[in-house]
DNA sequence: TCTATCTTGGAATAGTCGTTCCAAGTTAGG
DNA sequence: CCTAACTTGGAACGACTATTCCAAGATAGA
């Protein structure tokens, strides 16, 4: 029987993902990957193939390990509009403070990069958008059932709105946007989706967002 | 007296801007710039300096020639919410069809690129955001004066929302998003900002957006 | 322990990157 | 026409790019 790998491919891919996430895949060289992972070029190419396949794998890992769990939590949250508000609060906090501050979102960042034309990458981009929108839609449906939402709201359109808003937050956070501004922008949208003007004015569903500022 | 330039620097910068816009500055080499402009490396460096300064110049030109005129038109538009709806209709159309389809927005694209840390570039990014938000705010103020907007709407927050939404549209359009989805997302926001639920349901301010689909 | 089979480190590949340099060409005032 | 001042084409630079290759090392069944 042959030799086995002297490293953990899963841990290596995790480091590659973080490297591409923080710096951007386009401007990160294989030499950087070698240094960050401690692997040799041979092991890297034998395990992951070339850079394009490595980028696709790292992007797929980001969707599975980073995005999807949050999307699933949102879709499973039974609170309605507060669930969406909570999602954005955590998003802004993660994008503007802590370990990954100003890293943005790897999927969002990839939209403008060179690898966006690769089929494997494009597929992840579209899947990310579909899953984000579906999670938003699910939360909006719950909100509608709880009577939190204004009559006549198009849940599909509103879900698309919130997805686009999340991309905007991700994008601007990478340029060092003020978290207060981002949260204010989120609050204005959710207030617009809420049941009536007076209700949201006296007791807004997004009170927690305001408190975060 | 010395020799004069054998080319038009303004026209050359225009071509560079379009090149960076379509392909991305990071993945566009000086060789590509030389080929696209027809200039020699000597003339290029003598006129614009290195690549970083060239990128900053191209980005500044984009803001001045592409973004600002549209922002100014929005800020000067006295229609209120229809002015904002019209802005987004033109945006989606420009991003998804015609000459610059799937190019996105150069400023939006630059948010995720390598040059985003350069002071000159960062300055343009922030200026772009400030001007976009100010234009949105101006249109919202007009809308409030015309009684088109729901009571209690925070114009600053709503302006931030619309700016973030525009970034989302720009980003997703570069990945080939469906223009109908984008317009639906825009419509949902504007309906939420409009005066009352019943009014926007029977006669939405964003009717023209709906018709575009 | 032997050996087939895989992994590993690191050299080497051809190509591209941004940038610099210089001789040759071009201009316009004197 | 002369010449100072500038522009231009194109070669050349070292540093980097992704990728390939191979000898040496490691492994586990026979």
Architecture blueprint of SSEs:
The structure is a homodimer of 213-residue chains.
Chain A: H1 9-23, H2 30-37, H3 41-48, H4 51-76, H5 81-96, H6 106-110, H7 119-145, H8 155-174, H9 179-193, H10 197-202, H11 207-212
Chain A binds a DNA duplex (30 and 30 nucleotides) through residues 1-6, 29-31, 39-43, 45-46, 50-51.
What would you say this structure looks like, in words?
- With 213 residues, chain A is an all-alpha fold.
- Chain A has one domain (59-212): Tetracycline Repressor, domain 2 (Orthogonal Bundle), CATH 1.10.357.10.
- Chain A is 71% helix and 0% strand.
- Chain A is built from eleven helices and no strands.
- Chain A has helices at 9-23, 30-37, 41-48, 51-76, 81-96, 106-110, 119-145, 155-174, 179-193, 197-202, 207-212.
- The relative contact order of chain A is 0.12.
- Mean pLDDT of chain A is 93; it is low at 197-213.
- Chains A and B meet through α7, α8, α9 and α10 of A and α7, α8, α9 and α10 of B.
- Chain A binds a DNA duplex (30 and 30 nucleotides) through residues 1-6, 29-31, 39-43, 45-46, 50-51.
Q: Which properties best describe this structure?
A:
mainly alpha, 11 helices, 213 residues, homodimer, disordered C terminus, DNA-binding, Tetracycline Repressor, domain 2
């Amino acid at each position: 029987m042959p030799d086995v790998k002297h490293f953990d491919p899963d841990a290596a891919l995790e480091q590659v993902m973080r490297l591409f996430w923080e710096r951007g895949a386009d401007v990160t060289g294989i030499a950087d990957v070698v240094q960050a992972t401690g692997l040799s070029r041979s092991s890297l190419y034998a395990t992951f193939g070339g850079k394009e396949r490595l980028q696709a794998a790292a992007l797929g890992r980001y969707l599975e390990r980073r995005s999807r769990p949050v999307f699933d939590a949102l879709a499973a949250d039974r609170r309605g509009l507060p669930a969406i508000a909570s999602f954005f609060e955590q998003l802004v906090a993660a994008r503007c403070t802590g370990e990954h501050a100003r890293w943005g979102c790897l999927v969002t960042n990839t939209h403008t990069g060179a690898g966006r034309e690769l089929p494997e990458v494009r597929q992840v981009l579209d899947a990310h958008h579909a899953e984000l929108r579906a999670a938003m839609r699910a939360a909006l449906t719950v909100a509608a059932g709880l009577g939190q939402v204004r009559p006549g709201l198009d849940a599909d359109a509103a879900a698309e709105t919130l997805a686009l808003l999340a991309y905007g937050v991700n994008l601007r956070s990478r340029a060092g946007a003020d978290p207060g501004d981002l949260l204010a922008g989120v609050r204005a949208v959710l207030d617009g989706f809420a049941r009536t003007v007076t209700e949201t004015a006296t007791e807004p569903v997004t009170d927690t967002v305001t408190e975060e500022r």
